[in-house]
């Protein structure tokens, strides 16, 4: 069922169906247990019989919004039901003062080490939410001032990158056979004319096109060297975004079923092995603010049945450079988690912008 269909269902619900649905979801998010009709009759503002509530719950189950884990058990929301609740009925809380203070205290110990600061952000998010946290650290995105290739032998070379902010990186790579100091200088001259005032990300977008159109201006060896150098930049971890995961124990402790524990372990094994984590940025680049992914809506978390609440953080130019988020079971307290993630992302972005 498409989300537009789910939204139409919500609009077409009468007040009683909406109240029953809200009560089921809120009770489930709080306890994690199936909700029965007798329990609901005590929590609904409208005084109705248990039989009436059962009929409404059956209708909601027919619509795919609720499910019954066992024949005689109460109901729990489906993934579609949770999505409809989050999009249409979720009441986001104000950020609690104690949560704000814990996050501020962690980020306040800002010693100038960005990596260390973001490590502390992950620990703070995990501690405050009692879930598992994700922090996608930014790449080094300063503009390039100068590039130089240095031969270290017949099978070893080094790229020296000088950035406009004074940052210098030296990266080793294996050059193509037949390279000479002259061809390396030629390749460096070609690149320096192309990259001045641009970031590595900017350069990678159209480097192949530039090489194709200007191939005649450089010999074959220089062309190979450029491609080899670019490959070395992409393979080297120093400019790549890094994923920080904290609070694995929190997520494992929240699941008592062996099958669920195995799925959660599989999720973390995948996170730890994952080399290309740029997709976390792609999750957030479609718009500002917090996004919520429930279960299979995010392919990485689909097997574990987890939810991800994630928000991008931006630099001074309003460009997305990283993301922070919280992983938890689908019965996360979304109303509390959303403002925590949102506040943390905005604070990290401000700190990094002020630093630059």
UniProtKB/TrEMBL annotation:
Residue ranges annotated for the Heat-inducible transcription repressor HrcA C-terminal domain, each copy included: 117-338
Claim: Transferase is one of the keywords in the record: no
UniProt entry tagged with the keyword Nuclease: no
GO molecular function: DNA binding
Keyword set, alphabetical order: Repressor, Stress response, Transcription, Transcription regulation
Biological process according to GO: negative regulation of DNA-templated transcription
Stored Pfam families: HrcA
SUPFAM superfamilies: GAF domain-like, Winged helix' DNA-binding domain
Gene3D superfamilies, per database record: 3.30.450.40, Heat-inducible transcription repressor hrca homolog, domain 3 (3.30.390.60), Winged helix-like DNA-binding domain superfamily/Winged helix DNA-binding domain (1.10.10.10)
Similarity comment text for this entry: Belongs to the HrcA family.
Role description: Negative regulator of class I heat shock genes (grpE-dnaK-dnaJ and groELS operons). Prevents heat-shock induction of these operons.
Entry protein name: Heat-inducible transcription repressor HrcA
């Amino acid at each position: 069922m498409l989300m537009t269909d789910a939204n139409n269902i919500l609009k077409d619900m009468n007040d009683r169906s909406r109240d029953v649905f809200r009560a089921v979801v809120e009770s489930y998010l709080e306890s994690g247990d199936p909700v029965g009709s007798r329990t609901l009759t005590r929590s609904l503002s409208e005084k109705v019989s248990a039989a009436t509530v059962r009929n409404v719950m059956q209708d909601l189950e027919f619509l795919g919004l609720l499910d019954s884990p066992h024949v005689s058990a109460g109901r729990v929301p489906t993934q579609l039901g949770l999505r409809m609740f989050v999009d249409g009925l979720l009441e986001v809380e104000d950020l609690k003062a104690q949560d704000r203070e814990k996050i501020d205290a962690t980020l306040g110990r800002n010693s100038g080490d960005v990596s260390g600061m973001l490590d502390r952000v992950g620990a703070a998010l995990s501690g405050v939410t009692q879930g598992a946290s994700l922090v996608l650290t930014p790449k080094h995105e300063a503009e390039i001032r100068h590039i130089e290739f240095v031969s270290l032998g017949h099978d070893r070379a080094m790229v020296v990158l000088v950035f406009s902010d004074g940052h210098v990186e030296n990266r080793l790579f294996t050059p193509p056979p037949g390279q000479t100091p002259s061809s390396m200088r030629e390749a460096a001259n070609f690149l320096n004319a192309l990259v001045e005032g641009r970031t590595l990300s900017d350069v990678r977008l159209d480097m192949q096109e530039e090489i194709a159109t200007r191939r005649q201006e450089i010999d074959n060896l220089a062309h190979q060297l450029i491609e080899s150098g670019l490959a070395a930049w992409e393979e080297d971890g120093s400019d790549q975004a890094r994923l920080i995961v904290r609070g694995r124990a929190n997520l494992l402790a929240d699941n008592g079923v062996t099958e669920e524990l195995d799925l959660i372990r599989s999720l973390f094994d995948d996170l730890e092995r994952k080399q290309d984590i740029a997709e976390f940025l792609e999750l957030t680049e479609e718009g500002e603010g917090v996004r919520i992914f429930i279960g299979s809506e995010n392919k990485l978390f689909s097997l574990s049945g987890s939810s991800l609440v994630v928000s991008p953080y931006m630099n001074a130019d309003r460009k997305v450079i990283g993301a922070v988020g919280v992983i938890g079971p689908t019965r996360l307290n979304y109303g509390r988690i959303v403002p925590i993630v949102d506040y943390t992302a905005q604070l990290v972005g401000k700190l990094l912008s002020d630093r630059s």
